[in-house]
Amino acid sequence: MTVLGFDEALAHAEWIKLEAEEKIPIATIPALVVMKFFAFADRKHTDDLKDVEFILEHYLQYHNEDRIFDELAENFASGTFEYQQAGPFLLGKDAGQLCNRQTIERLLPILDSLVDPYSEKIEKLLGPIGDVDEEEKRRREIAANFKAFQDGIKQIDESRL
Is the pLDDT of residue 60 over 90? Predict the structure, then answer.
């Protein structure tokens, strides 16, 4: 199993105090997502992707609502993406800021395989829906969230060049 992302996770961990002198590092959400992508790439367990999908869909609710207007007003004004992709995009930016170049270079191909709504990986995330129109909508939502996350990482990566 790859250990890419672990150094970044530890370097950006939040330290939680257990008792008087005991502290443990807790991975931040962006670090956890990066490690989950690498775990999926190694193990091919759909549960890793389901965890990431859940986090992508709910990241705004984790103290990030105010960031929409501070950081993304231009994106909304230009129609770059929809409100639903704001959380995944911000999470991508946060993940991109903690990752080094090598980690990003290994992460982006994993994401490339997740932005096609008709990929086998998206298929595995769907589960039984039953309604063709609803399935199509869900496919596109999932792929758009992965794409927004990827775009957030790329924006940070390009700003470093």
Answer: no
- Which structural domain, as residue segments, surrounds residue 134? 29-160
Instruction: Give the residue carrying structure tokens 């924006």.
Output: 155
Amino acid 6: pLDDT? 62
Q: Point out which residues pair with 24 in neighbouring strands.
A: 16
Tell me how far apart the alpha carbons of residues 78 and 52 are, in angstroms, rounded to a whole number.
27
**Residue range 8-22, pLDDT digits in tens:** 776 777 778 887 778
Average pLDDT over residues 56-61: 90
Type of residue numbered 21: E
Band (pLDDT 50/70/90 cuts) for residue 37 is very high
Is 23 inside any structural domain? no
For 53-57, the CB contacts below 8 A with 24+ separation are: 53/125, 53/142, 53/145, 55/29, 55/91, 56/87, 56/88, 56/91, 56/145, 56/146, 56/148, 56/149, 57/87, 57/88, 57/145
- Side-chain-facing half-sphere of 139: CA atoms under 13 Å: 17
Question: How many domains, in total, are found in the chain?
Answer: 1
Q: How far apart are CA 148 and CA 154, in angstroms?
A: 10
21 occurs within a structural domain: no
Which two three-digit tokens encode residue 88? 């995944």
